[in-house]
Amino acid sequence: MSIREFDSEAKSFIAGGFQLPEGKQSVSWIDRDTVLVARDWGEGTTTEAGFPFVLKELKRAQPLDQAREVFRGQHTDFKTLPFVLGAGRMDVTGVVRQINFFERRYVLFGPAGPIELDLPKKALIVGIASGRLLVKLDEDWIRCGDTSFKAGSMISYDLAEWKQDPLRAKPSVVFQPNCRQALSGFGTTRNFLVVTILDNLQSKAFVYRYDQGAWHATPVPLPKNATVRLSATSAQNDEMTFTVSNYLTPTSLWYFDAESKRLELLKTAPATFDASKHVVEQLEVTSRDGTRIPYSLVRPRSARFDGSTPTLLDGYGGFQVPRLPSYEGPLGRLWLEQGNAYVVANLRGGGEFGPPWHRAGQGATKQKTWDDFIAVADDLIRRKVTSPRRLGVIGASQGGLLVGAAITQRPELFNAAIIGAPLLDML
């Protein structure tokens, strides 16, 4: 992509403004006349993955070839990104050295030189709220031998203390999940941290405020038994919006003011199919190694449980991405309305129960993802929801690998398969 400076009030590009030619690049403001740029500088400065690993500082009206190098990663990294915290206010700048898809290192540009933060590699700095720096952890962390934090937690630092000495500032817990919970979304407003979590696959939303040495959480009373996603927050005030959706109810948009606690339904998408003849059930099955695997069954109310219902089994199980209820118009119109059933399996490798659930189906343990999927198929047949003759499977990308493995290992379970963009050669 190419990058040009744009005046949002005049609604026009700025003459003589910052303009970067097309390329894989990332840019962050330091101040009005200075930016940090990571891009291919034409000097062999891209990683094996094709992304930049050299970061330079560029001044307004300065030719690109005169930009000053401020950081150089490694050719074997995934990529390098500029890091600016509270541009124009906090004056904290640095770089994110993305080692691979999940691991990163943060380096700050201090007055005495670069400072590499002592965060674990699977940590993400997510913003500022209530005068605290927020960090999400995707691995367990024992800090200085005395303080431990669980994977999937969010922690915070006093921002002033952290700025003064980021290596000695002491973090504290904001949110720590139990074994059936996961942090699913987050954002910040002027005074609040906004968090959505999965609690045994049930979506919940909270606003957090730091006061008198502790974080205090207030639930947002959104509809239950639905997927709740944070869609927008305001940095100027404490307003936010959420989307709410499930398999049979059209997506709705909700407004919430964290200061006044006012909740308002703004809009609901139109229904695109008749959902009155279906019900949703949350079921579980025990996988090969004894782990409980949840799945959602959307079935006709009049299902006979004699194996005759045509059923489509969907799954993903990768990249710490959870599969959650959502309203799918074409699926409802073309499949459910015909009296059929739809199933979504929540497999290890996904993000339904946080980082440990992801790691359990990753790399050398990937077979567990496929075992979980096959266990759900077996359970649907055991319950006589459907039968092998009436059971099809569907998945795309990582889900395509899943379907490919399932129909190869247990071909007798399925009579149809839809495989989209499958990563069948993935290591």
Low-confidence spans: pLDDT under 50, at least 5 residues? Answer: none
- Main sheet? 6 strands, mixed
Can you tell me the overall shape? globular
Kindly state the number of beta strands.
32
Strand order of the largest sheet: 27-28-30-29-31-32
**What Rg is obtained from the alpha carbons, in whole angstroms?**
24 Å
- Average pLDDT for all residues: 94
Helix content: 10-25%
Q: What is the count of helical runs?
A: 5
CATH class of the domain at 278-420: Alpha Beta
Summarize the structure in words:
There is one protein chain. This protein has helices at residues 159-164, 329-334, 355-359, 367-382, 398-409, and strands at residues 3-4, 6-7, 12-13, 19-20, 26-31, 34-38, 54-59, 68-72, 79-85, 92-98, 104-110, 113-116, 123-129, 132-137, 141-143, 147-149, 154-158, 172-175, 181-188, 193-199, 202-211, 214-219, 227-233, 239-245, 252-257, 262-268, 278-286, 292-300, 311-314, 341-345, 391-396, 416-420. The strands form 9 sheets. It has a 6-stranded mixed sheet. It has a 4-stranded antiparallel sheet with strand order 5-6-7-8, with no helix packed on it. A 4-stranded antiparallel sheet has the order 9-10-11-12, with no helix packed on it. Among the domains are: 1-116, no CATH class; 278-420, 3-Layer(aba) Sandwich (Rossmann fold). The protein is globular, with a radius of gyration of 24 Å. It starts with a strand and ends in a 7-residue tail after the last strand. The longest helix has 16 residues, at 367-382. It has 427 residues and is mainly β. The protein has 5 helices and 32 strands.
